[in-house]
Amino acid sequence: MSKGHTPSTETRRPDRAALVIAVFLAALGGLIFWDASRLASATGYSGIGPATTPFVIAGCLLILAVWTVFEALRGDFPTRDRQEVAPVVWIIGGLALQMLLLKTAGFSIATGVLFAATAAAFGKRKLWMTIPLGILICLGVWLIFAGLLQLSLPAGPLEHLFW
């Protein structure tokens, strides 16, 4: 026996978070399998049809769910760091503001606010700088998508100045 090695006397408990993830994976795989089974009758002259890829994805998700259960019961997942709440709140708040502003303020302003909130979540809290920068970047994206690609994105007062 090597020096300093002592057998662990504590028993490993199942990882509850991993078990929840396994249930979610299994439910998602089951849902995709159920939805794809309704498409199975639409095959053409070959056995491959529109349901083939969803069946493969559902099967992979179910395999991952079973694998996750085994790993959770063995307790082999590494210990996770403590979740920081503030960055999550910044991003969720930015998404909520984007959804609220999208119709009235337009794509550039709404998505620029989301950009600034995400930058704040990653530590760049200078909103006086990130909001205008985000709006300019998103205006460029809007001009490319709406102008060149002829895709319909919500236009607000800023976009009406350019188009």
UniProtKB/TrEMBL annotation:
Positions of transmembrane segments: 17-34, 54-73, 85-101, 107-123, 130-153
Alphabetically ordered keywords of this record: Membrane, Transmembrane, Transmembrane helix
Domain DUF1468: 20-154
Source taxon at top rank: Bacteria
Protein name per its UniProtKB record: Putative tricarboxylic transport membrane protein
